[in-house]
Amino acid sequence: MSLCPKHENRKTYDVANMALRCAQCVFAILVPALSGVDLGRWSQSGSHADSRWIYAEVVSVVSILTAWACGLRQRRAQSRASLGFCVFWQAVLSLLWVVVSAVFGQLAASDSAAAAEELDVTGPAVGMAFAASSFSTLLWVLDALEACARCTAGRAEKVGAEEQGGQGLEEEGVRVIGLEGTGETEETETRGAQEMNGQSSEALPPYSEVESTIEIGKTELAVDDLALLHHYHTVTAPTLGDARLWRDAAPRLGREHPCIFHIMLSLSAYHLARLRPATTTSSASAAHCRRLAEHHYEAAVRLAVPMLPRLDVVNCQALYVVTVLICFTAFARGPSSSGDLLLVAQQQGLVPWMSLLRGVRFVLETVGSATVLSGFLAPAPETTPEACYACRSGCGRCFAALAQRRAWNWRETLGRIQEVAAKKTCSDAASAAAAAAAKIYDGAIKSLVRCFETTFREDDATVPKTCTQGQVHVVMAWAYTLDPDFVAKLAESDEISLVLLGHFAVLVQTLGRYWFIKGWGEHILREVRQILGEEWADLLPYEFYNARC
């Protein structure tokens, strides 16, 4: 398993630190070994040893013990006080080695044979001892400078966090009620936001007062990540539909596939940022949540993409789970720009999550849905969803009310679009390209009709079911089965493709009870209308432009 950049940096640091300690030990041993030549001879002759040689022996022993202790204790979890002591002690050792180098250097540079004979020292050994002590001095000076730089960087990072003034995550997000595995309604979202406002007294201290990690010995505890994980399990997972799947089953795969945990935390952070009210006191905290969400989203995609070429029965379930969650998170991120049409982005082409959606299709077609959706990922029995909040409130703005007033007949409109597409392809030169375009349009329209028929009643297309809340797997089936060439036409702003996308937005809007999809339908309709202009107005479902479920 590949390491993340943070872990790779730690591994590199550990290797460099061990190499430095080994070099310090080697030179600290070499100096007393060379000076020991004269000490041994003095001991045999019964002469008194020179105090400078004894001083060099003591400095060498102290240096060996210090290098051994620093190498045994990895320093990345040190506090600023500990780093300050390291800087002081290594500076002291550097000065002691400067004195040793000066002693041996003075003797090595002396041209007086009488002085050497008077001291009874070995010339070659003294010269080599001077070189070894000089290298040792350099190593300890560099070590002291590196420790000083780390101490200064830590202080600067703390000051930067204080100036940022953001707030940390709350220990407990809003508690969503009334979610029986079918998603989140507007009523629940509003009630949850109100509960969150009432819990402000239980929030964590501002981010400037809380370090992003708590150091316990050599272990780093990510407080923000733990808060996001708690929010995911208690609040976010039940809003995704099948709470048993996303709350209980999916995390079990995260231990061997960290990309799942990354995308869970990203989705949780986006959810928490959306639940926060847009006030002055919470805006910084919401921004902090979005920064965390982006960090985990990028990490999840980076770790998930290499899994596709290595697809097998062992990792197929993990790849399926992480891909679906990445799609949810892509919705939760919201439109990236005014030209973002969910499936494509103007001047950018295919959006990343569409590539991963094709990955889901590839997984299911290669391994088989029976293999992927088995064991603890087996789907729960389907239940009939309740009527949407707009239907129960009797506001008259939901899809059911509009359709009952015969405001719009989707089957008739799609039939007209098919006729326009046929005329467009026939007007082109009779070629294989025209035939291929006609086939692409026909496949997209038929797939869209199936999605409408499942969402609305088949016996009378103008009268929808009692509940017009779409199901995610039904609505997204259109995007799931789209021909890549149709998506390419969307990226080229092809008119027929954009009109069909506008009708797909109606289906997307039936998923408005899901917080991460809410608002996408209106956005797509608005963007398509702006791109096409009034020429194609009669083929677009404007009656649904302001409809909400």
TrEMBL record:
Keywords for this protein: Membrane, Nucleus, Transmembrane, Transmembrane helix
InterPro entries linked: Fun_TF (IPR021858), Zn2-C6_fungal_TF (IPR052400)
Chain segments carrying region Disordered: 182-206
Transmembrane segments: 12-33, 53-71, 83-105, 125-145
GO MF, one annotated term: DNA-binding transcription factor activity, RNA polymerase II-specific
Keyword Acetylation: no
Keyword rRNA processing: no
Stored PANTHER family: STEROL REGULATORY ELEMENT-BINDING PROTEIN ECM22, ZN(2)-C6 FUNGAL-TYPE DOMAIN-CONTAINING PROTEIN-RELATED
Protein name: C6 finger domain protein
Organism of this sequence: Beauveria bassiana (strain ARSEF 2860) (White muscardine disease fungus)
